[in-house]
Amino acid sequence: MGGALLLLLCYGCEAPNPSAQWTIQVKETLQNNYKAMHDSSAALEAAVKEHCAIDAEQPATLISAQEAWRLTMANWEAVQWAQFGPILENNDHWKIQFWPDKKNIVARKVTSALASDDPITVATITDASVVVQGLSALELLLFDDKFAPKLATKEAKLCELTVAIASRYEQTSAKIVAEWQDINPANLSQADILQSLLTHVEKIKIDKLGLVLGKKTRNQVANGYFAESWRSKQSFANIQANFFAIKALLGANHSGFGLAKYLNALGHPEVADALVTKVDAILTTLETFQQPLMIAVKDPESKSQVEILYQQIEQFNEQLRNDLVPALGIALGFNANDGD
Amino acid sequence: MLMMETDIFRRSLLKMGLALSVSSLLVSCQQSPTKQGLVLSGCDDRSGQHYLAGVSAKGELVFQIPVPQRVHDIVYLKAKNRAVFVARRPGNHLYVVDLNSNLLVETVTGAPGRHFYGHGVVSNDQQWLYVTENDFNHNLGKVGVYRIGDTLKKETEFASHGIGPHQLTLESKGDILVIANGGLQTHPESGRKVLNLDSMAPNLSYLSLSTGALLDQVTPPNHLMSIRHLDIASNDRVVAGIQYQGQLTDLVPSVLVHKRGETARWISFPETLQLSVKQYIASVAVNNDARLAVVSCPRGNRFVVCDLTSHSVAQEIPCRDAAGLRFVTDHWVGSNGEGDVMSMGAGASLLAVKDQHNVPLRWDNHLTVI
Q1: Per-residue confidence at A15, pLDDT binned at 50, 70, 90?
Q2: Cα–Cα 20 to 30 A to A288, which of A221, A308, B190, B233?
Q3: B356 in contact with A at a CB cutoff of 8 Å?
Q4: Residues 77-136 of B with CB under 8 A from A
């Protein structure tokens, strides 16, 4: 009897600790995602350089650079939730993406950068405002009606600026990858991970959908220009990338030690199941949209579908707060959301 | 051995979200134990129940008293060895805890038509407690004056010279009140909703306690810059934190440095830092010679150290949901919403309540150390 108990205890000692296993999994998932973000940022830089280098006889098309931007944007959306580690310490978030931008500051700053007589290099951009250092400025240059046609015809100043920003973005993402490699998963705080996830889902609800649906305005009128990535018509794709990343974090469809397995180990498989079911429902709703978000909110029928998506994300947020947080037994802060 | 201890210490720091990688490290977290006494703060548990709490220097919970209203700041009444926990808007309770018995000995309910803003200050002679209040039927900021006896008794009140008075303090001689009038109009019927974004008029006011006269007033360059929290050094230099009510992407100063009769100085954060802290400074704590001030930025998940000589940011200390701050003798004591209490400063130590993953407490925005 005593021997059996001892054996059981020793077995317990040797078994991998589920809590640590999950944290290791989060670290590895993010490491791979940051690597993908950097790879695609290098591909974007190369595509922009190639576009601008090819002689003017080539057709005036930006398609390959635009596609490269879409890919790196999607890769950014996959890590957008993580607000800890190098991104937090270096204040990189706004540098990578300047959004929400209700005052259209990106357009203003890009316009004034283009007005400069001095050559624009990556050094110029590094010293400039973060507004012109990342994906938002690149989206403007690659997709906006006012700028993209000039970039398509390889106008020198446009090319100079776009190449410099793409190089700067490549540097920023390279630095994150390098610093993230040094992170010891044992030093990752599960409270940080959880708080990041909650804040992110709230942001998807409030900023990515609520602002567009007019939830914050008195007259509740929808405004498509408040959509994330409205210029590239990538708003829904961004949210899709967000939820694919959340699904990966739950670990429902891969062999690693995802949140679902951790919850299982803690005796809360039902919490994991319910979260996965909701994420799948959200992804299904996202697949139904035929038009970009900024158009969808103008049509009563598709707008009601956006409202459904909004409600599903709100419900998911409630599940995280009411079911996941207690299941993991983590105390979260509240001053950031409800201070005075 | 020493190396091992250092490594363990570093790991525990990282666990608490404190990064020591900043090169210009002016404030360091070191291992030697602190001499400070009880840390008092409001807190919530995971279910949202509000408490008054005291934590010993060793990180042990000395008391934890459930209360109906969420509290904000704490005033220590030295002569009585009592602590007054002040409810935040739209709360109307003052909770008095006796620190000999660690029991709640009195709950003061604010006068009809008034609520508190979470802050108070005690007079130098320990006879009077001054508390910021809202006369919400007339939309006027008030300072309530309470006589400190066996119970707290409101004797009078006077104008705060602004709407939405928040934190207040006294100059060193104790004859002049310094009040941050946040400028935000709220009414209990609409909860915490701000009703006057277009007409906000925040200010920092200096009032004579003997005459009630307004001696000096600072108004910010932008009317949406709500001046909310402040601290004062022994040389009467005031440092205040700004909560800007406009767009997240607007670049406005985050910290005000001012001494009565002098020109106001504003500290702007570097662009990336400003964007990260999301226009929100919570607690402010300045050291005695007004050389350094630490401010907490819960929305930016960090403490920010300001150099008051160069009027610039000296250091950032990442810390999830950074909340309370107080300068004590030679170091700062800080807290966060994840249950950590820590010391920052030369010769000070990290003071952990317990492992943040296990303590079901969430410290509120302010703390007091006795």
Answers
A1: low
A2: A221
A3: yes
A4: 88-89, 117-118
What's the distance, CA B21 to chain centroid? 27
Q: How far apart are CA A132 and CA A126, in angstroms?
A: 9
Asked if B258 has any chain A CB less than 8 Å from its own CB, the reply is: no
Determine how many CB atoms are found less than 10 A away from the CB of residue A258.
24
ipTM of the complex: 0.85
3-state SS, one letter per residue, for A131-162: HHCCHHHHHHHHHCCCCHHHHHCCCHHHHHHH
CA dist B356 and B334 (Å) reads 14
Residue A291 CA, distance from chain mean position: 21
Residue B21 scores a pLDDT above 70: no
Residue of A nearest to B89 (CA): A340
The DSSP string of B213-280 is: -EEEEE--SSTTEEEEEEEE-TT-EEEEEEEE-S-TT-----EEEEETTS--EEEPPPHHHHHHHTTB
- Number of Cβ pairs < 8 A linking chain A and chain B: 117
Pairwise CA distance, residues B264 & B128, whole Å = 29
Q: Is A116 helix (H, G, I), strand (E, B) or coil?
A: coil
Residue B48 pLDDT class (50, 70, 90 cuts)? confident
3-class DSSP assignment, residue B108: strand
Helix (H) or strand (E) holding B69: none
What's the one-letter identity of residue A110?
V
What pTM value is reported for the model? 0.87
Percent of chain B with pLDDT over 70: 86
